[in-house]
Amino acid sequence: MRTLRMRIEGLPVTLNRWSRAHWTLRAGLAEATRWQVQAAVGQARRTGQWDGQPFARARVRVTFGWPNRRRRDLDNAVPKLLLDGLVAAGVLPDDAAGCVVELTLRTGPVVGGAGWTDVVVEEVEADAEDGAAR
């Protein structure tokens, strides 16, 4: 089973910030996140952590290392732009439910600085009999 692990410095934009932002700011945030993900994927490929073949079906686990102990709603840390970046980088063919069969958000440690985001993409094989994920 193939696995891709990568760390992105900083945290993704929150739902609160995203929903209140002007469309030009949204476009800039989306582009910046795509570039961050593509850089992390490129690093993983250069170091042999990923073979460059897209995951047809995958589980995606996102862990946030928070910069401080401030109270946060985990559901506000939306990984939408991270998934879009994985598609743009060629890791996933699409971010639809048929390709991303499980998405898990986790709280990590308080790490200081700007925080970080760990993304783990695990291949899910389809059962030959019924097409269900194992």
CATH architecture: 2-Layer Sandwich
> How would you sum up the global shape?
globular
- In helices, the fraction of residues equals 25-40%
What class would the helix/strand composition place it in?
Answer: alpha+beta
CATH C-level label: Alpha Beta
> What's the overall average pLDDT, rounded?
89
The low-confidence parts are none
Short description:
The chain has 134 residues and is of the alpha+beta class.
Question: What does the secondary structure layout of this molecule look like, with pairings?
Answer:
Elements: E1 3-9, H1 15-20, H2 23-46, E2 58-66, H3 80-88, E3 100-110, E4 116-123
Parallel strand pairs: 2-3
Antiparallel strand pairs: 1-4, 2-4
For the structure shown, list the relevant keywords.
134 residues, alpha+beta, 60s Ribosomal Protein L30, Chain: A, four-stranded mixed beta sheet, 3 helices, 29% helix
